[in-house]
Write a structure and sequence with these properties.
Layout: H1 5-40, H2 47-60, H3 67-85, E1 89-93, H4 99-108, E2 113-117, H5 120-129, E3 134-141, E4 145-146, H6 148-156, E5 160-168, E6 172-175, E7 185-188, H7 190-195, H8 197-203, E8 208-211, H9 215-222, E9 228-232, H10 234-240, E10 243-246, E11 256-263, E12 277-284, H11 291-302, E13 306-313, E14 321-328, H12 334-346, E15 349-357
Parallel strand pairs: 1-2, 1-3, 7-8, 7-9
Antiparallel strand pairs: 3-4, 3-11, 5-11, 6-9, 6-10, 12-14, 12-15, 13-14
The structure holds the ligand C=C(O[C@@H]1C=C(C(=O)O)C=C[C@H]1O)C(=O)O.
The site of ligand ISJ has 11 residues, from helix 1, helix 2 and helix 3.
Length: 360
């Protein structure tokens, strides 16, 4: 016999009470872990452990919940448990409502102390100075390529990468009126203006495009002037009380941005192997024929795959470059260590930016 609505809801209420008891039990255990860590002086946040918890549960998941539901639910549970051990302060390019904030919450869950910063430089500075324990910075966009400022700052920073996450970035045109009429300027971060240039050329060809420090700042400014529009997320529309005058105006429907999570090595040392890991490094090679080819030889020899290869000018005026390389694997695997050692021997400059579990 099928159950009535009232019976089903009563059953759900009973399950929720069981969940509540189980979650509080879990939180109490995490609190005990916190006491142990405090006594040992070891870090609260252990991304490889969190990745392993999520992987384990996804593998054990009988459904009907989907794998990504399981990941999202447990990320929030672990965020709340971690906050009981000690709330983590996380810096990102602000103000509230930016994609960087969204990336921070996607990675750490929402139980964090938010430290919005006025620029990417400031995220690095605040994290290096200890104002925040972690920083979240954009590194690459699927339409526009690298975020040059972040890559350049990696070169000299004492911070290292301990995690990554990527977001589907949907840009909307936001303004006070729900129309495209009488717009004098569109204000957004240069990356967003670039990612929407096809739409802007087609729909607002004669309107001034003004670069501002973040999309959320553009949205904030649009809320102060009816002739201005911003390009930002749905959340920024809610945050600043604006209409979405045009939805999803980015030129690439699958526009994604990848973010790196950074911290001082004393906050968190290189995460242990999670099973799906990545090593990021910057190298430069002497400017001679075949030098770039030589970098690839150790990787081929030791069977290590490279998932990223970017170049940035070394600013020496000599047409020299730094190469940003991502390798798959973890230094606990002998072939990865062997490839890194061979590579180091070839390079004029060699810096490991971090070893971390692969993100979404
Ligand atoms: C509880 C721990 O601390 C944190 C919280 C975790 C959790 O809630 O499962 C996992 C890893 C840590 O980030 C732990 O290290 O086991």
């Amino acid at each position: 016999m099928t159950k009535t609505l009232a019976e089903l809801r009563a059953a759900i209420d009973a399950v929720d009470r069981e969940l509540l008891a189980a979650l509080n039990h879990r939180a109490a255990l995490a609190n005990e872990v916190g006491d142990l860590k405090r006594a040992e002086g070891t870090p609260v946040f252990r991304p490889e452990r969190e990745a392993a918890v999520i992987n384990g549960l996804q593998n054990a998941n009988p459904g009907p919940l989907k794998e990504n539901n399981v990941a999202n639910i447990w990320r929030e549970i672990m965020s709340a448990c971690r906050a009981l051990e000690a709330p983590q302060r996380v810096a990102f390019l602000g103000p509230a409502g930016t994609f960087s904030e969204q990336a921070a919450v996607q990675f750490f869950g929402s139980s964090i102390e938010r430290v919005p910063c006025i620029s990417i430089d400031e995220v690095f500075r605040a994290t290096a100075a200890g104002t925040a324990q972690f920083g979240v910075v954009p590194v690459e966009n699927s339409t526009e390529g690298v975020v040059a400022r972040s890559l350049d700052l990696f070169l000299n920073t004492p911070l290292h990468i301990v995690g990554e996450t990527s977001l589907l970035v949907r840009h909307n045109l936001l303004r006070q009126a729900n129309s495209l009429k009488d717009i004098e300027a569109v204000l957004a971060h240069p990356q967003a203006l670039a990612q929407c240039q096809g739409w802007l050329n087609a729909h607002l060809p004669d309107v001034e495009r003004r670069a501002v420090s973040s999309n959320a700042e553009g949205a904030r400014l649009a809320s102060t002037n009816p002739a201005w529009a911003g390009i930002a997320s749905d959340r920024a529309a809610t945050e600043f009380g604006l209409h979405i005058a045009a939805h999803a105006i980015q030129d690439d429907a699958f526009n994604r941005t990848r973010f790196a999570v950074v911290c001082l090595p004393q906050t968190l040392n290189a995460p242990e192997a999670s099973g799906k890991d990545c090593v990021s490094l910057i190298v430069s090679v002497p400017n001679r024929p075949g030098a770039v080819h030589d970098i690839l030889v150790p990787l081929k020899k030791h069977g290590v795959s490279m998932t990223r290869f970017e170049s940035r000018p070394a600013r020496s005026g000599q047409w020299e470059y730094y190469f940003y390389i991502d390798l798959q694997g973890h230094p606990s695997q002998p072939q990865v260590t062997a490839a890194l050692e061979d590579l180091r021997g070839l390079c004029a400059f060699y810096k490991v930016l971090g070893t971390y579990p692969l993100g979404e």
